[in-house]
Amino acid sequence: MSDQSGEKNYFFEDFQLDASRKLLLRLPAGEPVSLTRKAFEILLLLIENSGKLVTKDQLMAEVWSNTNVEEANLTQTISVLRKILGENPNQHRFIVTETGKGYRFVAQIHKSSKDRVIKQAALIEEIFDKNSGETAANPRSNDRKAFLPAFAAILTILLLTGIYFFWNGSKTNIFQPSSAKEIKAIAVLPFKNIDSGEDHKLLGVGMANAVITKLSQIKSIVVRQTSTVVRYAETTPEAAKVGREINVDAVLDGNIQRADGRIRVSVRLFRVNDGALLWAEDFDEPEKDIFALQDSISEKVANSLLLELKPEERDKLKRRYTENIEAYQLYNKGRFFWNNRSSEDLRKSIAFYEQAIASDENYALAYAGLAETFVLLHTYSPYQEKDAFPKARQAAEKALGLDENLAEAHTALAMYKEQSEFDWEGAESEFKRAIFANTNYATAHQWYGEFLAFTGRTEESIAEIEKAFELDPLSLSTNTARAFPYLAARRYDQAIEKLKPALELDQDFPLALYYLGRCYDGKKLYKKSIPEYKKAIAESGRSTYFISALIYALSKDGQKAEAAKAFAEISEIAKKQHVSRYVMARSFAALSENEKALDELEKGFEERDSLMIVMNIEQIFDELRGERRFQEILKKMRL
Q1: Lower Cβ count inside 10 Å, N or C end of the chain?
Q2: Distance separating alpha carbons of residues 379 and 110, to the nearest angstrom
Q3: C-beta of residue 395 within 8 angstroms of C-beta of residue 402
Q4: Do the Cβ atoms of 548 and 517 come closer than 8 Å?
Q5: What's the pTM?
Q6: For 365-413, how does the pLDDT look when each residue is reduced to its tens digit (9 = 90+)?
Q7: 164 and 187 belong to one structural domain
């Protein structure tokens, strides 16, 4: 039943079933019809056996192979199919049930859309011929006697010509309604891999990340970041539904398979407001051509959205940071674990980036990823690593030596200047260069927003972090960061409201729990902050930074013995590994040992402890704020 082009397409009534793309389309607009995978497989099997009885056993064996399900699943799926196709309960135009046996597809199948229109044109001619034959009995129609056959012929030619251009075009189907130009935000979902296993999952996420990275270079469109869409890697949601959830105008999704040294990809671009298919195409390329495949997908998405690209944007779409497939795959693994934001996963990320660099020593993106991961360790690691920031600077500078316009590298270098050198002007300059290089890079906006909060520029901070949230609305990190400007400005109730979405995404996310505890401390609700700190400590692997906050809350709540016990834990950890001077200062201040706290802060400044940047907004130091030594440290830091 397949058509003459070699593609598996079946046409019946107002539908087209595209077997190769696993799509059911409603004609003539080509709008996709939402079907579950099982429903699609049943419909395809029935159509491939059109007119023949397909038994229940055959359907169960082929659609639910290796799965123990009841026959009721089949009955329910058939019922859903009938509703989707528009069948009335007593009028089976498509599927007929043979009681106790199985099902038969009875609608007429056309080999191609051309066959379908030829039949329609013939019907039109037949109607006009009939009307022409009646003109002798109807004198009033004699003046149309010569016109009607000519009109029928013209109509037939127009219909066939339209079908010719539709059917004999390339494999690409592009629907470009006038509203395509109105699409301002797009999401690229992780490609669904037909195979199973962690590596296969990473292939789909990696392909999506590559397309996201390329499309992010286009300033006229907003692209949701990988950390927002990665949660859809193991689900098969309807594209339009996802689009509404993350507030975009269009969604790109696809299937991917790697087999026998080849990459097979099927991609579709949907408009969210009405589910219209804007573009679809299949690719089957040698695995070595995966980079060309990514270029092609990105460029065709831009074309389908009618985007007017600047020459430099077209160049960026085609920019490749490596031609080494092994390095590329290792980088994808590094980026995947980087998005998870836990100490363990960050260390995995570092290992994969380092392996990617070993495979390609000129891989700029891998150096930039390595730099960004090192600057995160002080936040997500249970303890601070003194050599993390020097390593971050080294990797960032190497990346910029390979590509001076790499946003990720400028972002990492900004963090180094901010947290290791206390170079506020230099850090701000790097953040701005990162955002100029890629305005769609959410991490640059988020970290710049946090920087602005440290320096007291609250409203600017809020604007930048909200921009990051717009780009990456389901990221735990971004959702948590939305609370930070309000926390820094001591607007605790607003901070608590901003934290709610983050904790809905993950009620155990340590940084969100810590921020919530800080808010309760600010409201002097220490009995509420203590359990939040305890949970954050447990979930973070006993972070000394969070333990020092617990000491403060316990002390304020009058639980002196418990506070001392928490301080003893930090002291024991300090015997085995480095503990931040800033953490020690917070702990001493919480116990009202102010001179020791000031001693530690002075040492922290001399050692360029990265956590020192928080001291100007730190509520634990309120009792020290009027001290001369405290003010001198702030002056040295230019805070």
Answers
A1: N
A2: 62
A3: no
A4: no
A5: 0.71
A6: 999 999 999 998 877 777 777 789 999 999 999 999 999 999 999 999 9
A7: no
